[in-house]
Amino acid sequence: MYKKEKIKKLLRKISVVSVLFILLLMAVFDTFGILTYERIAVFLKLRDSAFSSAEVSVHFIDVGQGDSTLIISGANTVLIDAGEKEYGDKVASYLKSQGIEQIDYIIATHPHSDHIGGIENVIENFSTGGIIVPHLPDTANDDLYLYRCLADSAEKNEIPLIEAFSGMELSLDCSVLRIIAPLGEYENLNSCSVVSELVHGENIFLFTGDAEAESEADMLRGGVLEDVDVLKAGHHGSSTSTCGEFLEIIKPEFTVISCGAGNSYNHPSESVMRSLGSLGVQIFRTDLQGNIIAESDGKKISFNFS
């Protein structure tokens, strides 16, 4: 009897140590991008590879102080930006965790590293139909180094670069993605950002890149804005974007802010948080909630986190 108790205690200790070792291993794999928690969960059959079963899902991927958004619309996929270069592996792993094998379009909103740095890694790992880019000023010079690297990588992988224009539409199975800006010529590369609107039934999502006040003003003058359900806040919640009149016209119910924990820019700004709060907007932040997944059935939108 005593011997049996000793064996049971030993087995319990072995079980506890094994579980702790597996958790440690998972943490190491996730940290170094070998296997993310998402992919481990899929491997262990804890969840399906595409864990969103909605007709349309929008995934705001946590890439620290940067932007990356995945749209899954039926059988079609669009990736908007991919964070800094060091986040390219994480974005690619996340896409694989969703069972994605090819990307219909990538939108490179503007040539800043926290938006397009990781795209090269993504196109090395996925078949891609085309990369949509903004028209850029001739005076951009050195700021275009990353853009040129991306163009070279696209050419090597035989992926066409498509210049965005207001009014361009992408049919995505059960939704439509419309390009609504930029509407003017800007010296400021943030305001050159490609701004797009996803329409699924009665639901509308607005993705603004880093578009700042001058681009927002042109959108207001151009009459291209309407009420939206979800706003991806411009420029990580900076005070240079998501201005008062712009917010009053689009009247979002939800806003997602993509920013890094403890970032040196103090994003999101207090003024933007106050403006959103005064309108009763529900706010989600990647620095607080990690990956944010919005699911739409064409009438209602629900949010999950991973």
Main sheet, how many strands, which sense, barrel? 8 strands, mixed
Spell out the helices and strands N to C.
HHEEEHEEHHEEHEEEEEHEHEHEHEE
Distance between the termini: 47 Å
Could you tell me the number of beta strands?
17
Overall mean confidence score, pLDDT:
89
Uncertain residue segments: 31-36, 47-51
What is the helix fraction of residues, given as a range? 25-40%
Given helix and strand content, the structural type is: alpha/beta
Strand order, biggest sheet?
A: 8-7-5-3-2-1-16-17
What percent of residues are in strands? 15-25%
**Overall radius of gyration:** 21 Å
Could you say which overall geometry the principal axes of the C-alpha atoms support?
A: globular
Number of helices: 10
Pick out its properties.
globular, 33% helix, alpha/beta, 306 residues, 7-stranded mixed β-sheet
Structural account:
- The structure is a single chain.
- With 306 residues, the chain is α/β, with parallel strands linked by helices.
- It is built from ten helices and 17 strands.
- The chain has helices at residues 2-31, 37-43, 88-97, 113-116, 119-125, 145-156, 213-222, 244-250, 270-278, 286-289, and strands at residues 56-60, 69-73, 76-80, 102-103, 105-107, 127-128, 131-133, 161-163, 169-172, 175-181, 195-200, 203-207, 230-232, 254-257, 282-285, 292-296, 301-305.
- The strands form three sheets. Strands 8-7-5-3-2-1-16-17 form an eight-stranded mixed sheet. It has a seven-stranded mixed sheet with strand order 9-10-11-12-13-14-15. It has a two-stranded parallel ribbon with strand order 4-6.
- The N and C termini lie far apart (47 Å).
